Amino acid sequence: MTQTLQTASPAAGPDGQAAARDRGGTAQPMLIANHLKKYFALRSGMLGGRAGEVKAVDDVSFSVRKGETLGIVGESGCGKSTLARLLMHLIPMDEGEMIFDGDPVGTPSGLTLRELRRDLQMVFQDSYSSLNPRLPVQDSIAYGPRVHGMDRISARDLARGMLDKVGLRPDLFGARYPHELSGGQRQRINIARALALSPRMLILDEAVSALDKSVEAQVLNLLRHLKRDFNLTYLFISHDLAVVRHVSDRVLVMYLGQIVEIGPVDAIYDAPRHPYSKALLDSRLALDPGERIDEAPITGDPPNPANPPSGCRFRTRCPFAESVCSTTMPTLGDEGPDAHLVACHMMAPGSGHSRAAGRTGAQPCPVPAL
Ligand SMILES: Nc1ncnc2c1ncn2[C@@H]1O[C@H](COP(=O)(O)OP(=O)(O)OP(=O)(O)O)[C@@H](O)[C@H]1O
Ligand code: SF4
Ligand SMILES: [Mg+2]
């Protein structure tokens, strides 16, 4: 499938474009990830022999609805960025498939990577290294449209229009180089660059994390307006749990390469069901002087991702671990895009965990206080 850039440029009107490019209809998720897997080989010694593998993303499945913001949280090293890079096809997946608006990606009859990158763009944390230091920023923004066939003058006009959209006057900022801008201004350029191809979805990987709080608030505000104006769908990765709550419709919690919980943002934040999600969210309170808690909400370091625990990967840090937790990996289930799902034996009737024993209904028990 091919689309011309001209019909999809911001000048054509974002709402009209979005409707024209909505191939699957409103009920079709924007993105479906099925059983994604990425193991990185570990090398050791002078000869670089294979010494094992890091299970960075291990059988991850989820979907993102059109127009929503799905937040992704989890400790450092749990696989958030690897997942983002897999979705962007910046690195090859070992297993799994991705479906974008109903079309499989990278199969003979599906979307090509070039087509995917028109529709799906990413903004990274490091605003400086994402930009070519030798190009004026308006040329960096125009680069994508040029590669996709737009003539030089139209691409320059588009770039200057995008500068305006992200709140930077083109006459003042267009000819500057990245080192002549502040971090917040550079991140606006990166957002403009990502939007120059009129994507339908943005992956934001710690995109505001390096900014100071006042600039972060401005950029978040900008993202909110752009989402509305361009009818965008966001995947928002951040270690800042407060920001994720603020921007997300749903939240996905990762632990050691796997999803442990996914659901509507208020359900996850107000009543987390997985002991890891609860501990992660309690860590906010541990940092808040007004709500200080005495006990550390989560103890111990994350296990070695090259040798994760058998069964439930959280069991070595979970106060509720029982024998079933070491023998059987809990599954998330699949109950539709709005469901609050959790991968924990305590929440699965008949799993063999004492806290789940005898439970016959679908109602989960609350996570006991840690
Ligand atoms: N190219 C690579 N080669 C080997 N291991 C890698 C590579 N990239 C990532 N990893 C490993 O994969 C795991 C997941 O890394 P990833 O960067 O996805 O984590 P993250 O959740 O984004 O962490 P952070 O919050 O610190 O950004 C880590 O154990 C990391 O060391
Ligand atoms: S499955 Fe077992 S170890 Fe894992 S979170 Fe649930 S109770 Fe804890
Ligand atoms: Mg990361």
Explained architecture:
The protein is of the alpha/beta class and 370 residues long. It has a domain at 270-285 and 301-363. The chain contains twelve helices and eleven strands. The chain has a seven-stranded mixed sheet with strand order 6-7-8-3-9-10-11, sandwiched between helices. Strands 2-1-4-5 form a four-stranded antiparallel sheet. Strand 9 (250-255) and strand 10 (258-264) form a beta hairpin. Helix 4 (137-147) packs parallel to helix 7 and helix 5 packs across helix 7. It is globular, with a radius of gyration of 22 Å. Residues 1-15 and 360-366 have low confidence and may be disordered. Bound molecules: adenosine-5'-triphosphate, iron/sulfur cluster (SF4) and magnesium ion. Iron/sulfur cluster is lined by residues 274-275, 312, 314-315, 318, 320-321, 325, 330, 344-346, 353.
Quick take:
The protein has 370 residues and is of the alpha/beta class. The protein has twelve helices and eleven strands.
Topology readout:
Elements: H1 14-21, E1 31-44, E2 49-64, E3 69-73, H2 80-87, E4 95-100, E5 103-104, H3 113-119, E6 120-123, H4 137-147, H5 152-165, H6 170-173, H7 183-195, E7 201-205, H8 213-230, E8 233-237, H9 241-247, E9 250-255, E10 258-264, H10 265-270, H11 275-287, H12 323-327, E11 341-342
Parallel strand pairs: 3-8, 3-9, 6-7, 7-8
Antiparallel strand pairs: 1-2, 1-4, 4-5, 9-10, 10-11
Helix pairs in contact: 4-5, 4-7, 5-7, 7-8
The protein binds adenosine-5'-triphosphate, iron/sulfur cluster (SF4) and magnesium ion.
